[in-house]
């Protein structure tokens, strides 16, 4: 019985960001009339789905103790390819090429991190600059418009009352939650991030494991690029700029540690929704968009501050 | 396990292959310099305009803004921290100094801008130094917050200076002294000052100590919080200097003028061989790192490649540079992880 309870608590424990999210929802429900309207929630889900999809992959990479700064550039690359190649290849193959570009770039990033031992921060920082250059060269600094209306219709479509893009995000989140809590790969992710050497000695093929995760986050970023361009029916070479920073913000808000070894998909979902609710609620309160940036920055630092005070590890640590 | 050399703290060279070890050591210590020299020779062979005095001085002038910012960021990186807020901070400072120029005059504008920018540097320093919070996330939050502040201040409008010819403020970005551009002089002057500070003062030694071995430095009586705090203030200071150059050169500013600079600056610092783990890095190498970025851009443009080709080359160069560094310390090109 106690064991069952313990394991229940282990899996059902609610990441603290959800409490904050609830507080935000309550706050905006009281202060604005429109926040609780049913249409608004699906709105928030659509708005957050782009960052949200990337954040799912980023969570796994960050639990590994790595990071991927190139996701914003991959969003632009995948969007440009899947819109720009529609004329030559047809829509579906173009989308496949777009998604494939993300996976391929993830493979490249992962292989470099694995084989050279260069820090993922530096590898993906380089990729972020380089891939953005590729996008500009490929597009000739032009925006592309999707001539196939089915493409932009997809972005507006609904499944069983839920917008398709929101559904994709939620289903993907459910799958990733399952992967991280119930599969060997998920367990290995925590092991590699928690203590890499120990994981290596325990027989985890750390290099291959990390490459898979980089391919996963590359796929997520490419998928986000595709969904974003279906929303607009177009792609621009500047698409996804600063997305790496927003994604990391969402993941960190969700309780994932930069050092690796800790974090969860549930937490990331909470972090993503928190950003969405804050932006949406402040919009409804007619707070100028400029203030939202300040509030987001302050909240990120505040969450970090509270987390450090509550979960201070090694209280005997030397303090000066 | 690799054996550690007690004096240098680096992996002890294997015995029996003296030539390779000497080569490796040279590569490790001067790799960036050799790469730089190869670059220059290669570009000069491929373009006859490349090696001209005009061109070289142009490159120096072009990199002066990123280079100036990189000096402060180098200090932060040596303490083992990151500063991602410098790009936003550059936007903020430039908008502030340009906007105030017409309202209260150049000198007061510069003073107010420096005060405000250093204040933000203090906030960074308090949070990371005294608050012991993760520097990446703190400065990421500050990046967003400062962006918001800039927009709130300007109301989203671009700002510019009305009398662009008559003001002495123009000297910082457009002036020449003894045949050298003033931005170059500011950049190199500050570089010398920072180099002296890092290598000849006790503050410099404490910066390296805090980044290299926090525990040992703490037991030796170095106050980590104070050193890290100062590093962030220095980073804000160099960003403010860069803002003066930028504002004066453009005589106006957009709200997002510094967007993305944080990572360009960091690339320059990393190319110079500073480790993100802290404890290593040097001002002359950062200057070379920044110059490599500048010369890549310049050389490729002279050879007629599209503008964005430089970003592709930067990608390759950053990874190669750090790989060589890591590989020489490891004594093998590839990791043995399975």
TrEMBL record, chain A:
Spans through the membrane: 12-32, 44-62, 69-86, 92-114, 121-139, 159-180, 211-233, 245-278, 290-310
CDD domains, alphabetized: TM_PBP1_transp_AraH_like
UniProt-annotated location(s): Cell membrane
InterPro entries registered for this protein in UniProt: ABC_transp_permease
Keywords: Cell inner membrane, Cell membrane, Membrane, Transmembrane, Transmembrane helix, Transport
Membrane topology designation: Multi-pass membrane protein
Molecular function per GO: transmembrane transporter activity
GO CC, any one term: plasma membrane
Protein name: Monosaccharide ABC transporter membrane protein, CUT2 family
Organism: Rubrimonas cliftonensis
Source lineage: Bacteria, Pseudomonadati, Pseudomonadota, Alphaproteobacteria, Rhodobacterales
UniProtKB/TrEMBL annotation, chain B:
Highest taxon of source: Bacteria
InterPro entries: ABC_transp_permease
Subcellular location: Cell membrane
PANTHER family given in the database record: ABC TRANSPORTER PERMEASE PROTEIN YPHD-RELATED, ABC TRANSPORTER PERMEASE PROTEIN YPHD-RELATED-RELATED
GO cellular component: plasma membrane
Topology of the protein relative to the lipid bilayer: Multi-pass membrane protein
Keyword Cell membrane carried by entry: yes
Keywords: Cell inner membrane, Cell membrane, Membrane, Transmembrane, Transmembrane helix, Transport
Primary location: membrane
Residues spanning the membrane: 32-51, 63-82, 109-129, 136-156, 176-198, 227-248, 260-279, 286-305, 311-328
Protein name per the record: Monosaccharide ABC transporter membrane protein, CUT2 family
Molecular function as annotated in GO: transmembrane transporter activity
């Amino acid at each position: 019985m106690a064991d069952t309870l313990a394991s229940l608590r282990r899996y059902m424990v609610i990441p603290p960001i959800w409490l904050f999210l609830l507080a935000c929802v309550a706050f905006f429900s009281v202060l604005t009339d429109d926040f609780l309207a049913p249409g608004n929630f699906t709105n928030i889900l659509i708005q957050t789905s782009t960052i949200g999809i990337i954040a799912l992959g980023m969570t796994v990479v960050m639990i590994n103790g790595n990071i991927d700064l190139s996701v914003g550039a991959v969003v632009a690359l995948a969007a440009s390819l899947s819109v720009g190649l529609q004329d030559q290849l047809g829509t579906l193959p173009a989308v496949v090429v777009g998604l494939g570009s993300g996976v391929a770039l993830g493979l490249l990033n992962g292989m470099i991190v694995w084989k050279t031992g260069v820090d993922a921060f530096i590898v993906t920082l380089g990729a972020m600059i380089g891939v953005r250059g590729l996008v500009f060269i490929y597009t000739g600094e032009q925006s592309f418009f999707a001539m196939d209306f089915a493409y932009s219709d997809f972005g507006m479509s609904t499944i069983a009352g839920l917008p398709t893009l929101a559904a994709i995000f939620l289903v993907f989140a459910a799958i990733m939650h399952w992967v991280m809590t119930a599969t060997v790969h998920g367990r290995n992710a925590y092991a590699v991030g928690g203590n890499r050497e120990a994981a290596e000695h325990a027989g985890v093929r750390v290099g291959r494991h990390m490459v898979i995760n980089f391919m996963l986050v590359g796929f997520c970023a490419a998928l986000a690029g595709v969904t974003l361009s279906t929303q607009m029916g177009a792609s621009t070479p500047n698409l996804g700029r600063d997305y790496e920073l927003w994604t990391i913000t969402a993941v960190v808000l969700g309780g994932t540690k930069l050092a690796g070894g800790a974090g969860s998909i549930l937490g990331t979902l909470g972090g993503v929704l928190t950003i969405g609710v804050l932006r949406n609620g402040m919009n409804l309160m007619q707070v100028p968009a400029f203030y939202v940036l300040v509030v987001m920055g302050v909240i990120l630092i505040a969450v970090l501050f509270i987390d450090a005070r509550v979960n201070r590890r090694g209280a005997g640590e030397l303090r000066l | 396990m690799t054996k550690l050399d007690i004096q240098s703290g680096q992996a002890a060279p294997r015995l029996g292959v003296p030539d390779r070890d000497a080569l490796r050591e040279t590569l490790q210590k001067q790799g960036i310099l050799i790469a730089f020299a190869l670059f220059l020779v290669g570009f000069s062979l491929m373009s006859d305009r490349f090696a001209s005095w005009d061109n070289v001085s142009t490159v120096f002038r072009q990199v002066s803004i990123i280079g100036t910012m990189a000096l402060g960021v180098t200090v932060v990186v040596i303490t083992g921290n990151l500063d991602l807020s410098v790009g936003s901070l550059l936007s903020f400072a430039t908008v502030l100094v340009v906007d105030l120029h017409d309202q209260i005059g150049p000198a007061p504008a510069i003073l107010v801008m420096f005060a405000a920018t250093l204040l933000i540097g203090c906030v960074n320093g308090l949070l990371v130094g005294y608050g012991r919070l993760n520097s990446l996330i703190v400065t990421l939050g500050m990046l967003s917050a400062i962006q918001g502040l800039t927009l709130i201040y300007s109301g989203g409008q671009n700002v510019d200076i009305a009398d662009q010819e008559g003001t002495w403020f123009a000297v910082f970005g457009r002036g020449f002294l003894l045949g050298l551009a003033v931005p170059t002089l500011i950049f190199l002057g500050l570089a010398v000052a920072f180099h002296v500070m890092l290598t000849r003062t006790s503050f410099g030694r404490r910066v390296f100590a805090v980044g290299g071995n926090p525990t040992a430095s703490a037991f030796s009586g170095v106050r980590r919080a104070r050193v890290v705090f100062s590093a962030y203030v220095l980073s804000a200071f160099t960003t403010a200097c860069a803002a003066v150059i930028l504002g004066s050169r453009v005589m106006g500013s957009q709200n997002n003028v510094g967007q993305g600079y944080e990572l360009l600056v960091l690339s320059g610092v990393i190319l110079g061989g500073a480790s993100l783990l802290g404890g290593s890095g040097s001002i002359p190498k950062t200057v070379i790192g920044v110059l490599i970025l500048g010369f890549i851009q310049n050389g490729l443009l002279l050879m007629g490649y599209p503008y964005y080709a430089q970003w592709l080359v930067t990608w390759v160069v950053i990874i190669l540079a750090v790989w060589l560094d890591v590989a020489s310390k490891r004594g093998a090109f590839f990791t043995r992880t399975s």
